[in-house]
Amino acid sequence: MMLKSMVLKYHQIQWTEKAISGGKLMIDVAYFGWHIHSEIHDLCTETSCPVSSGDFVISHSQVLPGYTPPGSYTLKMDIMDKDKQQLSCISFDFSIGFGSPVAAI
């Protein structure tokens, strides 16, 4: 039996006081409280750079393989500017059920 992969999509409206010309998006994932995955992305691949002061949108998609176990997950996302100053920290929980085609956030 082949299991289908799932796509976790995330869109978040952020606000910045000053213009942003680059940085990093750092993602950490925990499964039932245990750290299981980390990744780092260029901020300019997740939003359009340069970012002017005011509102902007961070969008991220992640393909979860078909063998992703069901259960409770926590995703933590840190957004850092090019000078390694934290711009934002976001954390949210989601769960994957047995046979669930999408994650419940």
Quick synopsis:
This protein has 105 residues and is mostly beta strands.
Structural class: mainly beta
The CATH topology comes to Immunoglobulin-like
Question: Which regions contain 5 or more consecutive residues with pLDDT less than 50?
Answer: none
CATH architecture: Sandwich
Query: Could you state the order of secondary-structure elements as H and E?
Result: EEEHEEE
Total strand segments: 6
CATH class: Mainly Beta
Give the total of domains: 1
Query: Portion of residues in helices?
Result: under 10%
Gross morphology: elongated
Classify the beta-strand content into a percent band.
Answer: over 45%
Major beta sheet summary: 4 strands, antiparallel
Please give the alpha-carbon distance between the first and last residues: 27 Å
How large, in whole angstroms, is the Cα Rg? 15 Å
Query: Order of strands across the biggest sheet?
Result: 3-2-5-6
Tally of individual helices? 1
Overall mean pLDDT stands at 83
Organism: Opuntia streptacantha (Prickly pear cactus)
Keywords: Lipid transport, Signal, Transport
Family: Belongs to the NPC2 family.
Function: Catalyzes the intermembrane transfer of phosphatidylglycerol and phosphatidylinositol.
Would you give an account of this structure?
It is a single chain. It is built from one helix and six strands. With 105 residues, the protein is mainly β. It has one domain: Immunoglobulin-like (Sandwich), CATH 2.60.40.770. The protein has a four-stranded antiparallel sheet with strand order 3-2-5-6. The radius of gyration is 15 Å and the shape is elongated. The protein starts with 5 loop residues before the first strand and ends in a 9-residue tail after the last strand.
